[in-house]
Amino acid sequence: MINLRNDYASIAHPKILSKMVELQNNTFVGYGLDEISDAAKLIIQKEVGQLNAEVCFLVGGTITNKVLISHILKPYEAVVSVESGHINVHETGTIEQGGHKIITVPHHLGKMKVADLNRAVMMHTDEHMVKPKLVYITQATEYGTLYTKQELQEISEYCKEHNLYLFVDGARLGVALTTEHTDLTIKDLAVMTDAFYIGGTKCGALLGEALVIMNEEMKHEIRYSIKHFGGMYAKGFVAGIQFKTLFEDGLYYQIARCQNDLASNLTKGLKELGVKFLMETETNQIFPIFSNEIIKKLEKHLMFELWEKGENESTIRFVCHYLLTESDIKKALEIIQEQL
Predict the structure, then answer these.
(1) Residues 4-41 pLDDT 10s
(2) CA–CA separation, 111 vs 93, rounded Å?
(3) How far apart, in whole angstroms, are the C-alpha atoms of residue 68 and residue 218?
(4) Which of 85, 171, 276, 287 has its CB 3.0 to 4.6 Å from that of 81, i.e. a possible disulfide?
């Protein structure tokens, strides 16, 4: 069975596991206050070009979103997200459980447009409604698409003009930064946003995300919120070891680039077979369309997610992870060709 279901299918990259074994007899201060975590934070600060940025390690994406949003918003303030946004669709009401409404706007291939954002802001006019305060977007999006530098700049400028925070979910930031289609760098992201996170879980880490905060208001007492909402783990050095390993010699980008290249080759092969797609994607997620009959046959050989079910044909999602090989891609294409 070839696993094309997700990009967090393995325990961790061998270099991370090797480093953990190397340090297994060391002891550390807990809660991310150790020297390796400090070194990892400094590497990330230099990488994003913001030496004053606050860097916090959390265990996963959902808790990172929950902590940051709950930390900075007042009870009557709301977050604006596209309808397909992860916090709106795949986080089981965790933002709402924290007491904050999600104002949704239409998505355009997974992305937010300023016109829709403005419409949502203008519709909330007084104290009888929640107040839009934080804009949440993802890079790459849930559809594997990307914000260009100009698109992010437009959203950033709008947020500054209307006193809104801008927060970027970077669960798949690695693939977003390494695709040949992007013109946006991690330094650009640090300049244009108030906060974002670097996803480790979906890019070779055992677990963990690195929350990077530029906005001084957001930095204030953030560790209290991390602890309060259950995002602070005692063995914080485990994250420190991982992110130091990922960023000290470019491993993070190597893994992400590998995932993109595999997806590109899979896409090319599917197109040669005449397969239709829901949309053109730019990273390691692709969305081919097959008849429901063929999908049932493919399920016997390939692992994937059913994305949009239709009466006669449906969209599925293939996600490429770094442990896949070109041989796996070739075999997957042969299986699909047999069924077609």
Answers:
(1) 999 999 999 999 999 999 999 999 999 999 999 999 99
(2) 21
(3) 8
(4) 85
* C-beta of residue 245 within 8 angstroms of C-beta of residue 19: yes
> Mean of the per-residue pLDDT values for the chain?
97
**CATH code for the structural domain at 2-7+252-339:** 3.90.1150.10
The label of the residue with tokens 């994406």 reads 61
Secondary structure letter of residue 90 according to DSSP? S
Give the number of C-alpha atoms closer than 13 A to the C-alpha of residue 108, restricted to the C-beta side.
Answer: 8
Query: Which residue, 87, 139, 137, is CA-closest to 117?
Result: 137
pLDDT digits (tens, 9 = 90+) for 239-287: 999 999 999 999 999 999 999 999 999 999 999 999 999 999 999 999 9
289-309, pLDDT tens digit by residue? 999 999 999 999 999 999 999
pTM: 0.96
E strands within 64-208?
77-82, 102-105, 131-138, 165-169, 195-199
Every domain of the chain and the residues it spans: 2-7+252-339, 14-249
